[in-house]
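Retry 2 of 3 after timeout on previous attempt. Resubmitting structure tokens to design endpoint.
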């Protein structure tokens, strides 16, 4: 169960946990749809205030474009739907840990929370290249990168893994043997890292005036 956060009401924590479970369940169901379209079972959901903004699967095979990862497709669509570059207050859910390529736009759009089911120590933007939790990029370039988001790793891991195994047991076995995805540490086990408060607010406001990177 989600650990209590110091100073945060229990009911608020439980409400957020319920939302996270529901959104991740939706994300996992989306990953099964990806398979039907000839894609690997990757999927992403972005929500704000408990409401879905956008959901997407990978579109790599459909569009013959290796950059069309589910997270990138979702971030792009969310900006169009909300009419702004800044996605502060949004949570991104993904069946697999976002890779480094996907993690930079997550930081650039200032997404506040990232929740994923299966960690990727070979390719992850948190486990391998710590883009998601790197405080330096937002400290040095606060006009371009948002503060360190909250990261929850391993939520509904076994449900997400089941989709992969059901789709193709052989490919799933090879992926696990190569260490591309993290080994299952046990039922109900996941990690939560709190967001890091933004610093240098005055500098960011000054730089935003000079160069309004997220103004629209």
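Retry 2 succeeded. Sequence:
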């Amino acid at each position: 169960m989600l650990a209590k956060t110091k100073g945060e009401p229990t009911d608020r924590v439980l409400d957020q946990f319920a939302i996270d479970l529901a959104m991740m369940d939706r994300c996992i169901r989306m990953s099964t749809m990806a398979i039907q379209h000839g894609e690997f079972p990757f999927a992403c959901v972005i929500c704000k205030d408990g409401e879905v903004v956008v959901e997407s699967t990978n579109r790599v095979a459909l569009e013959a474009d290796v950059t069309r990862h589910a997270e990138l497709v979702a971030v792009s669509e969310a900006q169009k739907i909300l009419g702004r570059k800044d996605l502060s207050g949004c949570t991104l859910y993904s069946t697999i840990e976002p890779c480094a390529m996907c993690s930079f736009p997550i930081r650039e759009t200032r997404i506040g929370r990232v929740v994923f089911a299966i960690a990727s120590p070979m390719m992850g933007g948190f486990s391998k290249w710590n883009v998601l939790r790197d405080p330096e990029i937002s400290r040095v370039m606060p006009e371009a990168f948002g503060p360190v988001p909250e990261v929850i790793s391993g939520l509904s891991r076994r449900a997400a893994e089941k989709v992969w195994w059901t789709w193709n047991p052989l490919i799933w076995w090879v992926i696990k043997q190569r260490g591309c995805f993290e080994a299952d540490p046990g039922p109900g086990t996941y990690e939560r890292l709190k967001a890091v408060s933004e610093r240098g607010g005055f500098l960011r406001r000054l730089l935003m005036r000079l160069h309004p990177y997220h103004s629209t």
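Attempt log closed. The chain has eight helices and six strands.
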